[in-house]
């Protein structure tokens, strides 16, 4: 009697897509994000996300790739700034490494002053020598001009009445 081969039940769902971790690391080193890595590898973003959640090695390969790419660019920038004497690279490096000293903009602080406080402070500093200072009078130039204009108008009206 021939033994029947027992078939193992098939697992539900799709077949797992295994991604090459070296290729993922290389793409991440070139500065690609997860959605760009997915497009470059011909898979969906969901596949990348599932692999990230499922495998710590996958997540680590992305982190290693990003760190390697950053190190390569940093080294190239430093080399350009020091060995090739690239002024642009030197400025960029300095602005990012020491922004307090090497920044483009000067920050202006706008303060409001209360002149009464300034005058009172000056009076207290000067003390008794302020006894000879004449008190300032409040002048309203608009009120003066308005009064002169009314006088002129009333004179003109009187002149018209006398002529007529």
Describe the structure.
With 164 residues, this protein is mainly α. The protein has a domain at 21-97. It is built from 7 helices and no strands. The chain has helices spanning 21-29, 34-41, 45-54, 56-82, 87-97, 115-126, 141-163. The longest helix is centred in the middle third of the chain and has 27 residues, at 56-82. The model has no long low-confidence stretch (mean pLDDT 83).
User: What's the helix count?
Assistant: 7
Classify the beta-strand content into a percent band: under 5%
Helicity, in percent? 55-70%
Oligomer: single chain
Got a strand count? 0
Parts with pLDDT < 50 across at least 5 consecutive residues:
none
The average pLDDT is: 83
Order of helices and strands: HHHHHHH
Instruction: Please give the largest β-sheet.
Output: none
Radius of gyration: 41 Å
